[in-house]
Amino acid sequence: MLKVYGALIGVIGFSVFCIVGGFALKGFVADKMDAEESKTVVIYNGAAGANGGTAPNGDPLPAVDCNEWNLRLVNKSNPLPEDFSISLVDIGNNKQIDSRCAPDLERMLSDCRAAGCNPLICSAYRTQECQQDLFDREVTKFMNQGFSYDDAYCLAAEGVAIPGTSEHQLGLAVDIVDKGNQNLNDEQANTPTQRWLYENSWRYGFVLRYGADKTEITGYKYEPWHYRYVGLEAAQFIYEHGICLEEYLGVCTNAPEVKAPENGQYGYDSSNNNAGFGE
Asked: What is the DSSP string of 184-201?
């Protein structure tokens, strides 16, 4: 009889254990699912991104959708798809830009002029053919200085984007210079126009894209004239935290090493020694 009662108690105890354990497991699974569902899944060019880290000062990076038109990352690691297209609008002097950021650009330039500055857009949207020509001319410039094709290609890529990887092809970038100094060099940063833009461009959704202290991340040398539209919210965060777009999106690994194509030279005129525009 004692054995029967013992067996019965064992069965009851095991059943209670399973029921309680089942509820506990169900609760654990439910909590885990809720936790997973509560996470903001960041989409980065069609794949889960790494956004969600912290800025250099420890502030959390905002959860964003990197597929939003104004946050799309175009660089050496992220070329534009071949079928990419946008709606362009004329902004004068045979220049065009994405129509969605044109009003903010117009406001920025108007206020810049009202502050006594003389901004001039020297480059905006570029076609694939235009970017190819600029890059080829930059390669030619270095080859005419005695560099091999491979070395010239890599040197060119430091200042002019490889075709298909330029923000100018995205339609959201503008190169702005001061009318009193239209040279694309570091001295541009000391002009009244650039000083005003550096302090105020974020108010209009634009950021200085290639900072002097971000070259390892962006893959481009300092360009104090290159401004990229990212939208008002993103621009304010990027400016206030002193970060670049890659850091804002949480994908701030160092830029990849550039290598010349294995098939060698292509498509440039060695008699043309003009330097191209930046990026």
From this structure: -SGGGGGSHHHHHHHHHG
**68 tagged catalytic:** no
For residue 47 the two structure tokens come to 């794949």
How does pLDDT run across 1-54, given as a tens digit for each residue?
A: 434 344 444 444 444 333 334 433 333 333 333 333 322 223 333 333 344 578
Tokens at 124, concatenated: 């905006």
Q: Which residues contact 128 (CB under 8 A, 6 or more apart)?
A: 163, 164, 169
d(CA 234, CA 241): 11
Q: pTM to 2 decimals?
A: 0.74
Contact present, 267 and 136 (Cβ < 8 Å): yes
Give residue-wise pLDDT tens across range 76-109: 899 999 899 999 999 999 999 999 999 999 999 9
How does 212-236 read in b/e, with b if 16+ C-beta sit within 10 Å?
A: eebbebbbbebbbbbbbbbbeebbe
Evaluate the CA torsion angle 252, 253, 258, 262 in order and state its sign.
negative
Task: Note the pLDDT tens digit of each residue in 226-252.
Answer: 999 999 999 999 999 999 999 999 875
Longest dimension (CA), the chain: 107
Task: Determine which one of 138, 167, 223, 247 is catalytic.
Answer: 223
Q: Is the dihedral of CA 94, 98, 100, 106 positive or negative?
A: negative
Contacts of 136 (CB under 8 A, 6+ apart): 266, 267, 268, 269
CA–chain centroid gap for 15, Å, is 58
